[in-house]
């Protein structure tokens, strides 16, 4: 539950930043959510490759149970996955930071 709130807060944060840049805040919030989940999936694969020491067999049901047990008992792998998702948020934030801010022109040529 706390992770869902974190993800929504990060999407809101990037949406506010996009609004200051003159972009659509809802679209950039959705892009942030998509990047977070894509980077999380990549982080899961990397965590399995780096940290999982079990054997992979032809029995798919057994493999799924072993990997679920692996994630249940190894908090470092879960932390790695969440931090990978944060990388997606940071990528979108970096892309928004590179865009120029909207400036107010009061009509006399001075910004």
Rg calculated over all Cα atoms: 20 Å
Shape designation: elongated
| Count of DSSP strands | 0
User: What is the chain-wise order of helices and strands?
Assistant: HHHH
* Termini Cα gap: 44 Å
Largest sheet: none
Q: Helix proportion of residues, in percent?
A: over 70%
Beta content comes to under 5%
Specify the structural class.
mainly alpha
Number of helices: 4
Instruction: Show unreliable segments.
Output: none
Average pLDDT score:
90
Number of domains: 1
Task: Name its key features.
111 residues, mainly alpha, elongated
How does the SSE layout of this entry go?
Layout: H1 2-20, H2 25-51, H3 60-73, H4 75-98
Explain what the structure shows.
There is one protein chain. The N and C termini lie far apart (44 Å). It is elongated and about 70 Å long. The chain has one domain. It is mainly α. It has helices at residues 2-20, 25-51, 60-73, 75-98. The longest helix has 27 residues, at 25-51. The model has no long low-confidence stretch (mean pLDDT 90). Helix 1 runs parallel beside helix 4 (75-98) and helix 2 (25-51) packs antiparallel against helix 4 (75-98). 76% of the residues lie in helices and 0% in strands.
What's this, in brief?
The chain has 111 residues and is mostly helical. It has one domain (2-98).
């Amino acid at each position: 539950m706390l992770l869902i709130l974190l993800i929504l807060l990060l999407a809101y944060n990037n949406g506010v930043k996009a609004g200051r840049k003159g972009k659509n805040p809802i679209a950039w919030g959705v892009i942030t959510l998509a990047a977070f989940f894509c980077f999380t999936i990549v982080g899961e694969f990397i965590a399995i490759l780096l940290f999982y020491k079990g054997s992979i067999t032809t029995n798919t049901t057994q493999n799924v149970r072993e990997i679920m047990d692996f994630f249940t008992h190894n908090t470092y792998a879960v932390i790695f996955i969440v931090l990978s998702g944060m990388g997606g948020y940071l990528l979108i934030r970096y892309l928004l930071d590179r865009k120029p801010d909207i400036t107010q022109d009061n009509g006399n040529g001075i910004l």
